[in-house]
Write a structure and sequence with these properties.
The protein is an alpha/beta fold and about 575 residues long. The chain is built from 22 helices and 18 strands. The termini are far apart. Belongs to the GSP E family.
C-alpha cells in the first residue's frame, strides 16, 4: 500500500535549505502563539529570513511557481477580470490576479491559502481548473493598485483593440447594451447617457427633456460596455483620447431606430451619449405640436408664401426639427417640389427629396444647398444654418423665388437677426430675405392620471389677468383656468409628467420691422415693434398651456426664462 504524500512543513524546509536556524523557528513560533499571524510573516518581521527567500521556499512547498511580475500580461488580466461574476474590485482588494488559459484559469497571489479567494474561485465558471502562482507581496500590491487605479479611471488601461473587441462581443455585454436600448425606447427616452465616475458608472435616460438615473454599475464593467457601444456606432474602440461621433441604423425591440453616438474623453473615462431616433414616430401633423389656434393660423399663413426665409429657433432638443417636419407634411400636397438638407435625416417623408450631408467627404450644408438650387425646388428645408456660407446661400435662395425653412440656435425669435449679422450677413440682406421667425421650447405635459389641483393659485391668477389686459383679443382661451400641479403615479414613473408640448413665440417681419433690421436697430427697438404687432412671449404662451391644465408654470419657467416675457 502506497504511503500518503505529506506536504513538508515550512519551518522544516527553511531549516533544510539553511535559511534559518532551529532557535529562530522556536522563537517565531512563540511570537506567533502570542500575536497570531502566519509563521512565514513572523519570520520576515523578526528578520530571520528575507521575503524573497521565504517565497522561494513557499513556491516549493505549495508547488506554485513564483512569478516575475514583469512577465504578467496586463491585457489578459483585464480581459479575464471583466468576465468574472465578482467585480474586478473584489479580486484587486484581495490582491489576486487572474488570466484565462485554454485549460482553465491561472491565479497569482501572495496568499494562495486565502479561504475567501478559494471559495470565490469555486463559484466561478472559469474556476473549474485553477493553476496557482505565487507573487511577492510587494508585486501583488503594486499590480492591484495599478489595475484598480486604471479601472477607476475608466480609460480601458492598456487594453489593445483586439481585447476590447473581444470584450465588446461577449454575449452578456451584447445583451446588456441591447436591453438598455430597449428599455430606453420603452421609457420614451430620447437619449442614453453613460457616465463613468471614480468608483461607479452611471446610466441615465433623458425622458421628456429631463435626465433620470436608471442604474449604476461597478467601474470594472465599464470598458466592455463602452467598447460595445463604440463598436456598434462604428467608432475606433482603441481611441480613448479624442472625441468621436458615429451613427447606426438598427432594429431594437422590433422597432427601426437610428442611433447617433457621441464620445468625449473625461477625467474618469469616455462619457458616451446615444441619441435615439425611432424611424416610425406616428403622426407628426401640425395638430400634434401644441400650437395655440392663433399661432397655428399665423404659422400656416407663413407656409403659403412663395418665397422668403422662415426661421425656427431654439436650443438643441427644443423640437425644431419636429416643427419643420410637421410644416413639410402640411404643405406636401404634390404641387410643390420639396427638398431638405439635413444632418442627419431624422425622419423619412414620402414625396420629399431628403439629402444627408457628409462633412467627412466635403459634402457640407453649403455645398448641398448650391446643388439644390439647380434642382428646381419650390421649398427648401435647411436642417441648421451653422456658418456664414450656409446663411448667405439660404438668403440668396429666399431672394430668388424659393421658400426656405431653416433652424438656428438662438434663445428667442428676434435674436435670430443678430445671429445672422454676427455670422457676417449684411443687415440689409437679412431684412430683405427674412419673412418670419418662430422661437420654441418644449415643456413637460402633466400626467392625466395623477395631476391634481394647485394649492396656491393667486400668483397664477394675477399673471393671467395681466395677460388678458395686454391681449384682450386672445382667441380660444380657457374660460375658467384649470391650475394643476404634478403628483406622480405608476403611469408616469412617479414624475408627475408624461409627454411634452411646445410653447412658442412668433414674429412676422412687418415693413416697420424690416426697415429697422436694415438700419441695424438695437434689440430693444426690434422688440418694441414686435410688441406693437401682438407678439406673445414663450412664457405667456406657456401660461395659456398652464391655464388649460396641460402643464405647470414652474415647468414653463424651467424651459423659458422669465426674461423672455
Amino acid at each position: 500500500m502506497a504511503e500518503p504524500v505529506t506536504t513538508p512543513l515550512l519551518g522544516e524546509l527553511l531549516q533544510a535549505r539553511g535559511l534559518v536556524k532551529p532557535g529562530e523557528i522556536d522563537n517565531a513560533l512563540q511570537v506567533q502563539a502570542r500575536q497570531g499571524g502566519r509563521l512565514g510573516e513572523v519570520l520576515v518581521r523578526l528578520g530571520a529570513v528575507s521575503t524573497n527567500s521565504l517565497y522561494g521556499v513557499l513556491a516549493e512547498q505549495l508547488q506554485a511557481p513564483l512569478l516575475d511580475a514583469r512577465e504578467l500580461d496586463e491585457a489578459a488580466i483585464r480581459a479575464t477580470l471583466a468576465r468574472l461574476k465578482l467585480p474586478a474590485s473584489w479580486w484587486l482588494d484581495h490582491q489576486v490576479l487572474l488570466w484565462a488559459v485554454p485549460e482553465g484559469l491561472c491565479v497569482a497571489s501572495a496568499d494562495p491559502l486565502d479561504l475567501d479567494v478559494r471559495e470565490a474561485l469555486a463559484a466561478e465558471p472559469l474556476g473549474a481548473h485553477v493553476r496557482w502562482h505565487l507573487l511577492l507581496p510587494m508585486d501583488a500590491e503594486a499590480w492591484a493598485q495599478r489595475l484598480r487605479h486604471e479601472s477607476q479611471a475608466g480609460m480601458g488601461g492598456s487594453l489593445d483593440a483586439r481585447t476590447l473587441r473581444e470584450l465588446a462581443e461577449d454575449a452578456p455585454v451584447v445583451a446588456f447594451v441591447n436591453n438598455t436600448m430597449a428599455q430606453a425606447l420603452e421609457a420614451r427616452a430620447s437619449d442614453i447617457h453613460v457616465e463613468p465616475g471614480e468608483r461607479e458608472c452611471t446610466l441615465r435616460f433623458r425622458i421628456d427633456g429631463v435626465l433620470h438615473t436608471r442604474s449604476t454599475l461597478p467601474m470594472d464593467r465599464y470598458p466592455a460596455i463602452a467598447s460595445r457601444i463604440k463598436l456598434i456606432g462604428g467608432l475606433d474602440i482603441a481611441e480613448r483620447r479624442l472625441p468621436q461621433d458615429g451613427r447606426i441604423g438598427t432594429r431594437v425591440a422590433g422597432r427601426e431606430v437610428d442611433i447617433r453616438i457621441s464620445s468625449i474623453p473625461a477625467v474618469h473615462g469616455e462619457s458616451l451619449v446615444l441619441r435615439l431616433l425611432p424611424k416610425e414616430r406616428g403622426d407628426i401633423g401640425m395638430h400634434r405640436i401644441g400650437m395655440e389656434p392663433d399661432h397655428k393660423a399665423l404659422f400656416l399663413d407663413w407656409l403659403q408664401w412663395p418665397n422668403g426665409l422662415v426661421l425656427v429657433t431654439g436650443p438643441t432638443g427644443s423640437g425644431k426639427s419636429t416643427t419643420l417636419y410637421s410644416a413639410l407634411s402640411q404643405i406636401n400636397d404634390g404641387d410643390r417640389k420639396l427638398i431638405t438638407v439635413e444632418d442627419p435625416v431624422e425622419l423619412r417623408l414620402p414625396g420629399v427629396v431628403q439629402i444627408q450631408t457628409q462633412a467627412e467627404i466635403g459634402y457640407t450644408f453649403a455645398r448641398a444647398l448650391r446643388s439644390i438650387l439647380r434642382h428646381d425646388p419650390d421649398v427648401i428645408m435647411v436642417g441648421e444654418i451653422r456658418d456664414r456660407e450656409t446663411a448667405e446661400i439660404a438668403i440668396q435662395a429666399a431672394l430668388t423665388g424659393h421658400l426656405v425653412l431653416a433652424t438656428l440656435h438662438t434663445n428667442d425669435a428676434l435674436s435670430a437677426v443678430n445671429r445672422l449679422v454676427d455670422m457676417g450677413v449684411e443687415p440689409y440682406l437679412v431684412a430683405a430675405a427674412l419673412r418670419a421667425v418662430m422661437a420654441q421650447r418644449l415643456i413637460r405635459r402633466l400626467c392625466p392620471n395623477c395631476a391634481q389641483p394647485h394649492d396656491d393659485v393667486q400668483p397664477l391668477q394675477s399673471r393671467w389677468a395681466d395677460l388678458l389686459r395686454r391681449a384682450p383679443d386672445l382667441a380660444d382661451i380657457p374660460p375658467a383656468p384649470q391650475w394643476l400641479k404634478a403628483k406622480g403615479c405608476d403611469a408616469c414613473s412617479g414624475t408627475g409628467f408624461r409627454g411634452r408640448v411646445g410653447i412658442y413665440e412668433l414674429v412676422t417681419v412687418t415693413p416697420p420691422l424690416q426697415h429697422a433690421i436694415a438700419q441695424g436697430a438695437a434689440m430693444e427697438q426690434l422688440l418694441a415693434l414686435a410688441q406693437q404687432d401682438g407678439r406673445r412671449s414663450m412664457v405667456e404662451d406657456g401660461l395659456i398651456k398652464t391655464a388649460r391644465g396641460q402643464s405647470t408654470f414652474d415647468e414653463v419657467l424651467r424651459a423659458a426664462s422669465a426674461q423672455d416675457e
